[in-house]
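Sequence design from tokenized structure. All designs in this work follow the same two-part layout: the structure record, then the generated sequence. An example of the structure record is given first.
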């Protein structure tokens, strides 16, 4: 009638402070069969929250580690990864919404990529505000000699605009599909590439601005240092791993099957 979780542990449980239920990804073993990955829904009352979210950035997510010493999960709160395509296809047919039949791995990071892009935009706005105030008292000659700063701001702005346009283009494509098969393996690999590209461009844009912020940017009271820490931390998400995303897309472009292992050998 279900499965029992014993001595389970997982990291990066964002929003755990405000949740009553938690969705966990875990391999489920039945009898002597090989473990199969599942999503399980567990009440927070059966979960121990470990206060270990001491990080360089994105501290506000509170993504603490959780431990489940012993919890019984009935079948009604279980879904195997392998069954998700069939469930999605059935819902797509029932509702007429083709996006429900698209693999969740092809759409999930759309809910995440806005964070690093927004942080980088915040860093750009913060830098422009501070630099504009400083330059307001400059003479024309002094202002003219700040060409490197102007170019740095313009380049960061262009990179962020390009990242946003690319992600929005992919989102619009996904919203418009009329058949789940339109999300081909090549297109899925491209979208993953673009998520990683946008996140890393956001990271580097914020870093270039932080470099030019000077010594005042390192104080805890500086919004710039917080934004710089946050965007660099957000860009560390597995969905935005540059090496993995580029390799997957490169193989797809060359007509090769995806690799068996990820960038960490698993």
């Amino acid at each position: 009638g279900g499965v029992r979780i014993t001595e389970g542990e997982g990291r990066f449980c964002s929003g755990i402070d405000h949740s009553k239920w938690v969705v966990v990804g875990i391999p489920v073993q039945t009898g002597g069969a090989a473990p199969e990955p599942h999503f399980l829904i567990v009440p927070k009352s059966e979960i121990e929250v470990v206060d270990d979210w001491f990080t360089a950035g994105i501290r506000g997510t509170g993504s603490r580690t959780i431990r489940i010493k012993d919890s019984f999960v009935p079948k009604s709160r279980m879904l195997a990864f392998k069954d998700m395509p069939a469930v999605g296809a059935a819902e797509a047919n029932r509702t007429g919404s083709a996006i429900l039949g698209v693999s969740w791995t092809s759409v999930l990071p759309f809910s995440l990529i806005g964070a690093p892009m927004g942080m980088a935009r915040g860093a750009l706005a913060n830098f422009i505000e501070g630099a504009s105030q400083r330059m307001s008292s400059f003479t024309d000659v002094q202002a003219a000699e700040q060409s490197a700063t102007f170019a740095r701001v313009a380049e960061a702005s262009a990179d962020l605009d390009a990242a946003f346009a690319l992600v929005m283009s992919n989102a619009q494509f996904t919203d418009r599909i009329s058949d789940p098969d339109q999300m081909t393996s090549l297109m899925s690999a491209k979208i993953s590439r673009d998520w990683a590209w946008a996140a890393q461009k956001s990271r580097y844009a914020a870093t270039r601005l932080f470099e030019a912020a000077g010594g005042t940017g390192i104080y805890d009271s500086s919004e710039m240092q917080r934004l710089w820490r946050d965007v660099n931390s957000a860009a560390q998400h597995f969905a935005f791993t540059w090496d993995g995303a580029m390799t997957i897309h490169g193989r797809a472009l060359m007509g090769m099957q995806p690799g068996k292992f990820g960038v960490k050998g698993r």
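Residues 196 and 241 are 6 Å apart (CA to CA). We note this feature because it recurs in several other targets discussed in the main text.
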